[in-house]
Amino acid sequence: EVQLVESGGGLVQAGGSLRLSCAASGFTFDDYAIGWFRQAPGKEREGLSCISSSAGSTYYTESVKGRFTISKDNAKNTVYLQMNSLKPEDTAVYYCAAGCVPWSSYYGLVRYWGQGTQVTVSS
Question: Would the pLDDT of 55 be above 90?
Answer without folding.
Answer: no
